[in-house]
Amino acid sequence: MNQPRRAGSIPGAARPDQPDLLMREASLDKLKAFLTLLPSMILIGVFVYGFIGNTIWTSMTDWGGSGAMALNPQKHFVGLENYIDLFTGFLGGNFRQDLVNAVYYSVMLLAGAVGLGMFIAILLDQKPKGEDLLRTIFLYPMSLSFIVSGTIWRWLLAPQGGVNVLPKYFGFKPLTFKWLSSQAAILVFNWQDILRILAYIAAFILIMVGVFLLRKDQGKAIKRWLIPGIVLGALVWIFGGLIPDALFMEEEHGFNLATLGIIIATIWQYSGYTMALYLAGFNGISQDLRDAAMLDGASQVGYYRYVAIPMLKPITISAVIILSHISLKMFDLIFAMTGPDNAATGHPALNMYLTTFRGNEFSRGAAIAIVLFLIAAMFIVPYLVGQYRQQGRR
Amino acid sequence: MTARKFSLGTVFLYGTLVLLALFFLMPAYMAAVTALKMPADISLPTAWEWPSVVNWSSFSDALAKLRPDFINSLILTICGTAGSTVLGSLNGYVFSKWKFKGSDVIFTLFLFGMFIPYQVILIPLFQTLRAMNLYGGLPGLILAHIVYGLPITSLIFRNFYAQIPTALIESARLDGAGFFSIYLRIVFPLSIPGFVVTSLWQFTQIWNEFLWGICLTRHTANPITVGLANLAGGQAVTWNLPMAGSILAALPVLAIYIFLGRYFIRGLLAGSVKE
Predict the structure, then answer these.
(1) Which of A21, A182, A242, B262 is the most buried (most CB within 10 A)?
(2) Which of A124, A145, A149, A372 is the mutation pick for testing B, counting most B CBs within 10 A?
(3) Whole-complex ipTM
(4) pLDDT-based confidence at A131, cuts 50/70/90?
(5) Using CB atoms within 10 A of its CB, is residue B61 exposed (0-12), middle (13-18) or buried (19+)?
(6) Distance CA A21, CA A29 (A)
């Protein structure tokens, strides 16, 4: 129902002597409703949209340096200079390393938290004894502040203590992994090649979509996705040398192993959340459907693989959206675990804080914030539009 | 029945669950053990062992250091929660029962505010609060929490009010009740559970927030998360104090979670848009 029905439209219910008055009251009430919403609309308009616009503007100025904290700082428009600096400039190297690290961090966090949460939800869906207590144990980290969990995990991941000495109690040698300070990087690539890599990724996505659609609409899948994907991939492979280098010298970035500790802590904190989402979803599936699946000879594994988990696709999408949003703004946990000065576990969100509020480089910080925002918007806008369309259909 | 209990599947099920539970409890155990040790007894290789002498004074020491921040957080959280839930309730009422042309679009625009990385509004927020003379103190922080709490509180209340039958509202209108009297006499009394869920969600969020706390407050108005970060961030720190501080900073939300867990989880689920 999109609009509250006019009282007068219910036959026999309206007071016949004064229908006009009722109509007028209804529109007055609508005005009141609008006026009630108005303050929030203005606040959101200014504090969300106005501020985003302001940050975009700031990112295109040269606000920074010694006079940055003055009440009326000098600002000049410099266009996209800050962005060009971040992606190709000499001083942007830290940012590029952080960005690469953040991408790996997000992917691993998503896989870990969704996977572990789903796994625990399936276990609890077997209705073991003590289910309530177990659920409480798995979910309590979610209620904690990142600063609290970061402080505790930092102690747990201390090099000569914590997790590393645990094997000793089972008769093994203690671990020697340097959780938060390792400098080793894996999956290294050369940032100079970033344009070629992006082209390969685009080709890969086109081909994957094509393969995925092959069963639905063969002609369209081949014409629109597969052939362009293969052609693009081949072109990059043959003529890749013609694509310009992003930088004039080699610059290697990879996933820093020190980040593993932070990923474990984040998974510890958020898999209970995905567990709760999936558990609510599993409980919503009717017992009849489950019985029917079992009757058709589905095993436990088959039931989850082919019935339950596909049915919960909207929950998976929600979880992915929320977790990627969290991983993109991840600041507190890294701040608490490795302190503000450790570059090995860097993240653009932390970099933004340090650049802006420690370095007083406001415009550069704004540019980092906008990059984060654009990445987040890539996920969120389609999601919200989808939600909105769904509402319309209802 | 008893024979089935010992089947391979059941052993696997309980074994895995116990291992996972131990993994999830590990940090809590570590925090408690370290907080209860004498500072001299804390060493990395024996971090897991139970203290030989139980020492409670870390808690009082940590509390002495964190008390002003704790009180700041309490004021901040209560004011922020109250403001954002009341406004959110009114918004949810309009969004669900008084839809007008374009209200769905406005609602979606509201929701977007929930998902932005807050770094993107941090600099203008800092500037605006400074221009309003609100920078550095609690009122500015409270304002920020109220405004950026609006999307989620409006969402939870909108979903909650969608369950109130529209027929109830319509019959009240036929009896001559207007916009506000319907809210006060019918919707508000029905929305106590909605207020509980939303307040708990907001309480947890505001209590746990750190980024604005560190960027927008001066030392005297630091919330507990900033206090704890300062306590743990020092170089020559003995670990009993940060661990005791962590436990103290976690207590209010943990208490809510343990005693009102049902509402906490409902808030959690309501926060994931899909309803």
Answers:
(1) A182
(2) A145
(3) 0.92
(4) very high
(5) middle
(6) 12
